[in-house]
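Field reference: sequence -> structure
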Amino acid sequence: MGESSMATETLEKTLKDQLAERQAQGTLKGRETVICGIKPGGEGRGPRVYLEGQGEKQFLLMNSNSYLDLSHNRDVITAEEAAAEKFGTGPGAVRFISGTCKVHVELEKRLAAFHRRQAAMLFSSAYGTVLAVLPSLIHPETIVISDALNHNSIINAVRLSRPAAKHIYAHLDMEDLERKIQQSIDFGKRVIVVSDGIFSMRGDYAPLDELVVICKRYEKNFEEGILSIVDDSHGVGAFGKTGRGTEEYTETRVDLLIATLGKAMGVNGGYVTGSSTIIDFLRETAPFYIYSNPITPAEAAAAGKSLEIIDSSEGIALLEKLRTLTELLEKGLVDLGLEVIGGEHPIVPLLIRDTDKTARLVEYLFQNSILATGLKYPVVPRGDEEIRFQVSAGQTPKDIEFVLTVLRQFANS
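Structure field:
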């Protein structure tokens, strides 16, 4: 091996110090859990996974975003395999050169129709979608107003955009949102109000019906109006009677909807849907679209099959099962005397309100074959520490009872 340069050694020392600081603060993510196999469900149990270094021990995933378990659906897998055979394993180019396949165009049309919009466009991820859309629509005379608990992708997209001003309103506080809009009058031509649909750490949802009414109330006070943009990556496919997310649940529609193919649809990629004019503009201006390869044709075909399933009686049945299992877990936690943030979304936060206890419980769950995510200070404010459970339609009542039994054992230990 060659010798490291002085510059490299100096940089590495600085980086090691920064990693050590993260570890001391409790924000170091550390080694990744590596899944090396999956055992299909059976005998009243849902699927289990095998982890590298854990031998034949089987783990129940309670921290997966695959809410409808479509990533294991045979029809979805078959659609992906068939498209890979037909188009190859990758697009080989960006969309404007030779990277657009028929399955990409078909999926965009299906997504637009599903959300009752004029048009949609695909990106390689939902994170990339947010980073592409917001900077393309924020100019130097734009004011951005954002929910305090918005996802990291929104925060970074706004930072990259350099708007005229940025205001943060208290989480889900529509009165504060209205105050921030009022304070922005005469200070910019365009306002963008941006929010998550479902907030991933808490499983709560934005009152989009109220948000849209407030935006319409003041849009004439700004030369270029007020644009409402929502990232509903955790909502689409997992929330609302027919899986159309927070918009459906609140019976309203925002101007631009961003979502993912990588959660309830069980595949990969992101998308935005809205008016034809806005989508046409984004195709010409969004760098993550212009200069980056799209999802593979196989992924597009798989996502198309997932969307077909969601928008069918089979999808309705999966959503009903998901809601039933979510209710079963929430009720069981409450019956154990535990504190939860209740709601219909399959994210079920168990509030621990103590960093050390949260870490101990995550480890106890792991030792008892359950994978769950612990959110500790300083990732969340002190006193808001939690275990985030995520329910999947691939699970069973027996799986939920297993989780509750392990939690009962922990409480008695």
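Note: The chain has two domains: 31-61+313-412, 74-310.
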